[in-house]
Design a protein that fits this description.
By secondary structure, the chain is α/β, with parallel strands linked by helices. It has eight helices and 13 strands. Helix 7 (241-253) packs antiparallel against helix 8 (263-281).
Length: 300
């Protein structure tokens, strides 16, 4: 089983009309949440670990998890409101966000006593690692999972507007790396965090995957570097694309340790992730693909 730990929220997405006062459509979202839904849709055995509101938005979020085949036994519930993220979409489809997070349910996540037997991987990232008091609980789960031998993926998916002390966050990020098996981040994340793939690899991860938008994806390991192009698609928006990459990497790795992958293996895995992200970019909001949409021509 793969466990995805982190926040869920509601994205308020422009309906396509021009201008800052365009009508906004509510859509389920949140980086970890999108990753869990994507994993469920492509057929992985996955559970979501978070704290979700009991309000109407929270009910929709939980039901969508179940519809995607995501186990919800690790979802904590609370009466506080659901976090809201107001998205603005640029001409190239890139998304930027403003957040409403004070007093929301996902900030009160508590460290679970244990994860189910058979968990092989745990994924973390985005707002959940920046907003206290929940951030400390997620951090504790990261460290505990790593020390117990689980594969760990970290996608910082940095939201600068939610980080009051950038230097403190960068120091905390460095402290996570010894407990991370695979670090995945965007070029924008990398520029904001500082450092280099070589420095991050030296700190702990076995591989670093860098997403470069229309330029594709690159993986850095201690032995080699492999890049693949982005899959060509008409981009509606990029909401959830990076989260879909996380899901594709986790699912595609299966039980293989990162250190066992050859450059050929990585080329195939990154190509799969690029195809998955392209499907998400081809439709509005975070709508990751289903397994049938990722089959190569001739596959049954």
């Amino acid at each position: 089983m793969i466990v995805v730990a982190g926040e869920s929220l509601i994205d308020l997405v422009p309906d396509g009309a021009p201008g800052p006062l365009a009508p906004l459509l509510p859509r389920p979202g949140g980086g970890p949440y999108n990753t869990a839904v994507a994993l469920g849709r492509i057929g992985a055995d996955v559970a979501f670990c978070s704290r979700v509101s009991t309000d109407a938005f929270g009910e929709v979020l939980v039901e969508r998890l179940r519809t995607a085949g995501v186990a919800t036994g690790l979802v904590q519930r609370g009466p506080e409101p659901t976090t809201l993220a107001v998205a603005s979409v640029g001409p190239d489809g890139s998304a930027h966000y403003g957040f409403y997070v004070e007093g929301t349910a996902d900030r009160l996540f508590a460290l679970p006593e244990r994860l189910p037997d058979g968990v092989r991987a745990v994924a973390f990232g985005t707002c959940s690692l920046a907003l206290e008091p929940g951030a400390s609980a997620y951090e504790a789960l990261l460290r505990r999972s790593s020390l117990a031998g689980a594969f760990t993926l970290l996608d910082p998916n940095v939201r600068p507007g939610l980080i009051p002390d950038a230097d403190a966050y960068r120091e905390r990020f460095a402290g996570w790396l010894p407990y991370v098996s695979l670090l995945k981040l965007s070029e924008e994340d990398a520029a904001w965090l500082g450092g280099s793939p070589e420095e991050w690899l030296a700190a702990g991860p076995a591989a670093v995957v860098l997403t470069r938008g229309a330029a594709g994806l690159t993986v850095f390991t201690r032995a080699y570097e492999v890049s693949v192009p982005a899959a060509r698609v008409r981009v509606v928006d990029t909401i959830g694309a990076g989260d879909t990459v996380n899901a594709a990497l986790l699912h595609g790795l299966a039980d293989r340790p990162v250190s066992a992958l050859s450059d050929t293996d990585w080329r195939a895995l990154l190509g799969y992730a690029a195809r998955a992200a392209a499907v998400t970019c081809s439709r509005a909001g975070a709508e990751p693909p289903y397994a049938r949409e990722l089959r190569e021509p001739g596959e049954v």
